[in-house]
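# nightly structure sweep
# worker-07 picked up a monomer target from the shared queue
# config: single-sequence mode, recycle default, output format = structure tokens
# input follows
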Amino acid sequence: MKILKGILLVGILTLLLGMILPWWSIGIAGLLGGLFFGESAFKSFLIAFLGSGLSWMILAIYIDQKNAGLMSSKIAQLFNGIPSESLIIATALIGGLTSGLSGLTGYFGKKSLANKNTAE
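# output follows
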């Protein structure tokens, strides 16, 4: 249940930060997800990857539907006519990887600070 809460909160934070900050703000959402919801390195990566990746995929599908696929079809022509759905998947993967690696950073930062406090 904690993982689902983390995925949902990272996804919402990704969308909210994306409204006011540049695209790399998903790193902030992933970092916070790994910091507060990560119980292990894998779970931290998974929470951040799925939260931001799914958010970006849903947003890309929404934008693609709003403009009747015009933009994605033109961009797909630049890449030798790949299907426009592949661009949506690539968008989700890029967002997910960026946020997932940030989630790992948050988890290892939390672990590092916890180890530092116990050593003293």
